[in-house]
Design brief:
- The protein is mainly beta and about 100 residues long.
- It has a single domain, classed as Immunoglobulin-like (Sandwich), CATH 2.60.40.
- A hairpin with a 2-residue loop joins β4 and β5.
């Protein structure tokens, strides 16, 4: 599981790069969503509506905007569960983000 930072009281972009098929070719037409966004106690913070669609921005990279309205707490870690579906292929994984004060 990887980890990145989420600035408190700031808009941010959740981005992950390159979604590929079994042959290593970038998948540019997948439906990618944030399924869960949970704190260490399993609660979803206020200010985020799930599932959250992610847009393809090029070469298999997908992103979603997260508003500064999300009620995250500095130094708290959050588990973000992502799902990608392309045809008969489906993958889910979890990415950890840590809320920080300042910029990411």
């Amino acid at each position: 599981m990887s980890e990145s930072s989420l600035p408190v009281n700031s808009d941010m972009v959740l981005r992950f790069g390159t979604l590929k098929d079994r042959s290593g070719i970038a998948i540019t037409t997948a439906t990618v969503t944030v399924q869960e966004f949970k704190d260490e106690l399993g609660a979803t913070p206020g200010g985020i509506t799930l599932p959250l669609a992610m847009s393809h921005i090029g070469l298999g990279v997908y992103e979603a905007a997260i508003s500064d309205a999300i009620a995250v707490v500095a130094n708290q870690k959050y588990a973000v569960k992502l799902r990608a579906v392309s045809g008969t292929l489906q993958r889910e994984w979890t990415h950890t983000v840590k809320a920080i004060v300042g910029t990411a």
